[in-house]
Amino acid sequence: MALPFIYEANGTSTRNITFSSPVETGSPPSAVPDSSDQTSVSVRA
Predict the structure, then answer these.
(1) 15-29 per-position pLDDT tens digit
(2) How many beta carbons lie within 10 A of that of residue 17, not counting itself?
């Protein structure tokens, strides 16, 4: 359920890219769960 919510919130391309940056670095592990990581990979691909 968190996947669609994050996808909708970050529906903007610019927002997705910005969200992918921190996810890759792994700075906010608490704020970015595994589900978010998968979404970022999908958006990047």
Answers:
(1) 444 555 555 555 555
(2) 13
* Pairs from 22-27 (Cβ < 8 Å, separation ≥ 24): none
* Six-digit token string for 6: 């994050």
- Strand ranges in 1-45 using DSSP code E only, listed in sequence order: none
Contact between 41 and 12 (Cβ < 8 Å): no
What's the pTM? Answer: 0.12
State the first-to-last Cα distance of the chain, in angstroms, to the nearest integer: 21
The 10 Å Cβ neighbour count of residue 11 is 9
